[in-house]
């Protein structure tokens, strides 16, 4: 992705969050220059990849396959300094975009439609070879449990949520005609480096073409503290 494209996405995301009165913690407004001056007191943000995250999954077409998200809080199963056992995210998904099919080996998560358009999920169980199983899928929605055939469409309207257990393949998009959705995630600790199993081999983070200065640093770009 071009840096200018990432900057534009973050500005749009900020605008939508303001519209929905979803307030962000102060560190999400730090400039790259300000981050150079931040010391050890902000190390949790660096170590646990809190902050802005804009990805095209390495495919080069963000508005077809892409997602913008913010990790607001997170523990770290690989670092005993951090004992937090949960994570929270807020995401922006636009009509025409797809978050591609994947599951997590370890993370259980609730995905919540926080506002905007309807969010469309497709669900599958993973089989013993981590392929798509042709078996019925248990659906857990706001305290209700029911079963659907593999690959069925699940639509979340604003305010509704879906619980996803490990080894449940899922993709999601925005229902046509509804524009965009703000999507929340409340989960166990998140590790994007080791706990994403994409059905089609793709990357998690974009390759960035630096065509203009960064407006905000992404969660994997913070400078080291010296």
Characterize the structure shown.
This protein has 226 residues and is mainly beta. The protein has a single domain, classed as Jelly Rolls. Helices cover 12% and strands 35% of the residues. It is built from 3 helices and 13 strands. The chain has helices at residues 3-19, 32-35, 43-47; strands at residues 51-55, 67-73, 86-94, 98-103, 109-116, 119-125, 137-141, 144-148, 153-156, 161-164, 168-174, 180-188, 197-198. A 6-stranded antiparallel sheet has the order 1-2-3-12-5-10. Strand 7 and strand 8 form a beta hairpin. The radius of gyration is 17 Å and the shape is globular. 29% of the residues are buried. The mean pLDDT is 96.
Report the biggest beta sheet as strand number plus sense, adding barrel if it closes.
6 strands, antiparallel
Across the major sheet, the strand order is 1-2-3-12-5-10
CATH topology: Jelly Rolls
| Helix segment tally | 3
Based on CA atoms alone, the radius of gyration comes out at 17 Å
Strand content: 25-35%
Work out the helicity level: 10-25%
Q: What is the level 1 CATH name?
A: Mainly Beta
The CATH superfamily name is Jelly Rolls
Order of helices and strands: HHHEEEEEEEEEEEEE
Quickly list its features:
226 residues; mainly beta; Jelly Rolls; 6-stranded antiparallel β-sheet
Question: What's a quick, concise take on this entry?
Answer:
This protein has 226 residues and is mainly β. 12% of the residues lie in helices and 35% in strands. The strands form three sheets. It has a six-stranded antiparallel β-sheet. Strands 9-6-11-4-13 form a five-stranded antiparallel β-sheet, with no helix packed on it.
